[in-house]
């Protein structure tokens, strides 16, 4: 099955792709084009946090988005809103990777799914390393699963060797003829406190409280579940909303 799929990809790429475009760039471009069909939206989000030694009740947000990168979050009090992969375009995400290539992944139940693998550009994290040796030896890889029937990102997994650091799974649903996330499940597997600043910056946005007030012994491991409902898509949002 794997060889058959790779054979089809090879034939497809030789017939349908511009000579200057690789199969990897084609998948990225098509996914980004799908993302860019959305000019603006507002949505209600419910966040559930399950992290040991960290307590937060279920939290509701109203989120406004306008292309290319305007985001406004309305919430009362304290909360955490994961943002990695939720509001950024596929191009922005893939810009943080190098050496992107197709994997030999195959799924008999989801035959339209493909996986791209790339090396994470560590400098893009703005992560303070304890020393130069740590910077050199910290080489995470990122796996991105794309549904090529809908051109959406279903899963992003960041690994260090075989150890998972971070994973986001997206479930989609048709909302007013737009294929949008219905639920995102963000999982963290990082236990090293030296990586906490990166994780806290990149995957958590503390609303109503300074992140530095979080306890030093916080365990950055657990699950954040995001449910989306009441989408209003491409109806126009005034710029003053984002002031």
Explain this structure.
- The chain is of the alpha+beta class and 243 residues long.
- It has one domain (2-242): Clam (outer membrane lipoprotein receptor (LolB), chain A).
- It has 5 helices and 12 strands.
- It has helices at residues 2-16, 23-35, 90-94, 132-137, 196-203, and strands at residues 40-50, 59-66, 70-74, 79-80, 97-102, 113-120, 141-147, 152-160, 163-175, 178-188, 206-207, 222-233.
- A 10-stranded antiparallel sheet has the order 3-2-1-12-10-9-8-7-6-5.
- A hairpin with a 2-residue loop joins strand 9 and strand 10.
- The longest helix has 15 residues, at 2-16.
- It is globular, with a radius of gyration of 19 Å.
- The relative contact order is 0.19.
Keywords:
alpha+beta, 5 helices, outer membrane lipoprotein receptor (LolB), chain A, 10-stranded antiparallel beta sheet, 19% helix
